[in-house]
Amino acid sequence: MDIHFEEASVRYEARTALEPLTLRLTERRIGVIGLNGSGKTTFARLINGLVKPSSGKVVVNGFDTVKDAEAVRAEAGFIFQNPQNQIILPILKEDIALGLKRRKLSGAEIDAAVSAVLVRFGIPHLADRRTHELSGGELQLSAFASVLVTQPKILILDEPTNQLDLKNRNLVERTMAAMDENLIVISHDLALVEGFDKVLLFSGGKLVGDGNPSDVIAQYKKLAGA
Fold first, then answer.
1. pLDDT tens-digit profile of 193-205?
2. What predicted TM-score, i.e. pTM, was given to this entire model?
3. CA-CA distance, 37 to 211, in Å (whole number)?
4. DSSP string, 178-209
5. Strands 198-203 and 29-34: what pairing?
């Protein structure tokens, strides 16, 4: 993974969501923490082009997120805070196949890829289930499958354990630990990112912490008055 922020900023009319940021990320697992409204989600969405920089640029594995938007989306997949918002079709296997439709694959190749990713996440029994019937943990694993069937090199997760009970939270953590992909994880669940290679801390639209997880988490707790 090689991500460059070059004086990248995001403004919405009079409000600055992210101050100009210059940063290079090469670590395999990166946590992103901060209070609500701190800029962390804006930062993460810049990486796969969901948000465009107002100034500066972001380059992901050699691709500019504005000029090479399609290539960037192939490099970096994004899983939203509420996975039900990105699972569109009513039957799970059909939803997972949707991401492959634009590729010139045969029906047999699509079916094989869907079956493989369902097996990878231990949910082949959910293939024909209606997505609105899935539990929180099943939905999160289904979102993993829907994004990773297209084989992005980087996976960005926005609060992947949000609103999960302890059993499903632990299931998602184990699943993430077994992944080969590079991970960038936005989380209020500090224990989830304690073992990562690096943690970034945002406050007021600025990057204020960057380094060892234990040090940055301690900085965040002090900032939050915890």
1. 999 999 999 999 9
2. 0.92
3. 21
4. T--SEEEEE-S-HHHHTTSSEEEEEETTEEEE
5. parallel
